[in-house]
Amino acid sequence: MKLNFYITCTALLLALSGCGDDFLDKKPSEQLSKEQIADAAKKDPNLLNGNIAGLYSTMYNTETGGTTNHDDFGQKGYDIYSDMLASDMVLGALNYGWYSTVARYQATKDYTQNADYQPWRYYYRIIFSANTVIDALGGTDAEQTEDTQRFIMGQAKAMRAYAYFYLAHFYGAGYGDGSDKILPIYTNTEVPNQPLSTTEEVYNLIISDLTQAIAYLDGFNRTSKDQINVWVAKGLLSYAYAARGTNADLQNVVSITDDIISNSGFRLNNQDEVLARFDAGTGALLNPQSGFNKVTNPSWIWGVDLTLANNLDLVSWWGQVDLFTYSYAWAGDPKVIDNGLYAEIHEDDVRKGQFVDVYGDGLYWPINKFYASQRTKELDENEIGGQRSIIDDYVYMRMEEIYLLNAEANAKLGQEADAKESLTDLLELRIEDYDYVDALTGQALQDEIYLQTRIELWGEGKVYLALKRNKVTATRGDNHLFFPGESFTFDSDELTFPIPQAEVINNPVLNQ
Fold this sequence. Notes:
6% strand; two-stranded antiparallel ribbon; two-stranded antiparallel sheet; 18 helices; globular; disordered N terminus; mainly alpha; Serine Threonine Protein Phosphatase 5, Tetratricopeptide repeat
């Protein structure tokens, strides 16, 4: 089927953002052949860096899910999907309707919905593009010995693993015993239609790709944080092992995250980087290093530096979430914290101040966690809705995730002293009195780590992953427009997308 995701670019170095929508349905007649790309790469492997750059741009460009919808803008769009599925992010109104089918759990019940198909198209586009690079380097099993080829292959395999990892979460109910058939696997661009593979087979590929990527990326010095280096690959591998969740996997999580914590050079954010603070008299912003809007943030392991050249505006993560950006959140579709989760944040926790009831209607906006960098005051009508063209950055992975994964894995292994150490390393930067952690054991300790994951990573697309790997139940607070007070288990139909209709129609061997 070629995944129905052929790239229509006519030259090797064109970024994916230059491709038209018609690549979704037919093989282009003017693209370079696999052989031509491979021949060019043999002469100058650096040419493939253009394809790698295209992979990274797919993560933040609009319409990369194959639609013109205003929730179609790459990874951060699907971070919003997952936060709403996990119920920690609330769609506060329906003036424009974006994300309504996700918040209503319609897209997870109806395989004809665009919100069901967009993630599928996006992640398989990443896979096809990664496979184009891998094929040009001799194929998925080809050994790379030269640094240039090793670094390119390492990034391509890591991106392929990243895409399969998210697909496995969106379209699978969790690892289970590994026997559920969830996704077709494609490891080159020439293979015909493939049937569904099991969760075990998908995770075996993810872990194999990331293990190889880590080996190949040894010595790679990236030029920008949007590129995958060895620390990003190790973070992704930690997530994959944690999701599969055997004791051996969990021990691998501990070892890898210990390595990242000790040797990566990234650190946890301090309070001035986590919470916006204001002068009591003038309302002036005192710590512009907050706002989670700069890729230079010392905790960001993976992210992208967005500039005017990226041409993003209201169709963006900032547009959909930030009150200070001219777009949907400001204009009437707020994205706010679940009231039940907000109530669980300790009063002495600085992160409680990240959320503000802006209009006195019981909706707590994340305006002191995320805000456009043009903001200078607490609340100024001239600054609300002020950012028109996006110059603020996207975060994909940060150090706090690594500490929480480390604590979670140690707790599940019964290594509770180590779990508490990692957890309190984080909490001492957030809460005045965190001594209560000392008394926690067993499931109570695991529950606390999960709660802190929900609080720390709210709005960043990571709680859905934690919900599925911890096999927990999401209960909606009373400020949800749909299903307030109702609970949904991690493996319920509401929390997992079905295989999209287009795939069912176009892949005749899907269920063989």
